[in-house]
Amino acid sequence: MPAPRRERRKVAGSERVGVYTLLRFERGGLDAGIPGQFFMLELPGHVVPRPFSICLAPKGELGFLIDPVGPVTRELCELERGQEVSVFGPLGNGFRTDVDRPLLVGGGIGVAPLPYASQLMGKPPAILGFRTRHHAEAAKLVPKAEVCIEPTLVTELIPAVPMNVLACGPEPMLHAVHALVPDAQLAWEAPMACGFGACYGCVVEFESKSVRLCVEGPILNGRPPVLPVLNGSEEEKAE
């Protein structure tokens, strides 16, 4: 896998995609990495950077899909072309993309790493679930996507025939996907501060072992990890 680099990169563009924002940076000397890997974005004036999966990697750019749920993510979504941010990555372990019969499964902002995965995997079928039709506008980033809106769940659409599932979404969705497809590749989330295993802020229990998601994940297989219970917005607490 490519070695991570830290560079200050300029915003190349920003577009609304439903409730989300697709924020694009000039790539510079950064490598886009493997689908499922992430980058740490650090805004001036904020001590703690934020992790974001690579969403799209057009020539000369890196794109991140951001949900403006807290002060930092809102500020990122308001960045204008030419403004600079510190970008560090790619980090973590990505999806295995050399699988037969792949199926991409995403829920909500968990759609973020799937456009890049689809691009590199030849546009395999995808199932995406969202809370509202406004959220579901993000499905246009993933070719061949079948979309469902709550109360319909993505697990109701996963076919019974064996497929290699690559999934990203909220914890209940990942548990449900794992119950149906035990060997699915699951992209988990946890609060992160450094992105390279130094702070131990993203440790979860996985198969009776402590796992740092930023270096041993975020893609995990087998029994789902026990994730920390989040009370309120972890982003707000990090301010």
Care to give the gist of this entry?
This protein has 239 residues and is of the alpha/beta class. It has two domains: 5-91, Translation factors (Elongation Factor Tu (Ef-tu), domain 3); 102-220, Nucleotide-binding domain of ferredoxin-NADP reductase (FNR) module (Rossmann fold).
Provide keyphrases for this structure.
239 residues, alpha/beta, Elongation Factor Tu (Ef-tu), domain 3, Rossmann fold, six-stranded antiparallel beta sheet, 5 helices, disordered C terminus
What does this structure look like?
The protein is α/β, with parallel strands linked by helices and 239 residues long. It has two domains: 5-91, Translation factors (Elongation Factor Tu (Ef-tu), domain 3), CATH 2.40.30.10; 102-220, Nucleotide-binding domain of ferredoxin-NADP reductase (FNR) module (Rossmann fold, 3-Layer(aba) Sandwich), CATH 3.40.50. It is 14% helix and 32% strand. The chain has helices at 71-77, 114-120, 171-180, 213-216, 234-238, and strands at 5-17, 20-26, 38-42, 50-53, 61-66, 84-91, 102-107, 126-130, 145-149, 164-168, 185-187, 203-206, 209-212, 219-220. The strands form three sheets. The chain has a six-stranded antiparallel beta sheet, covered by helices on one side. A six-stranded mixed beta sheet has the order 9-8-7-10-11-14, sandwiched between helices. A two-stranded antiparallel ribbon has the order 12-13. The longest helix is centred in the last third of the chain and has 10 residues, at 171-180. The model is unreliable at 223-239 (pLDDT under 50).
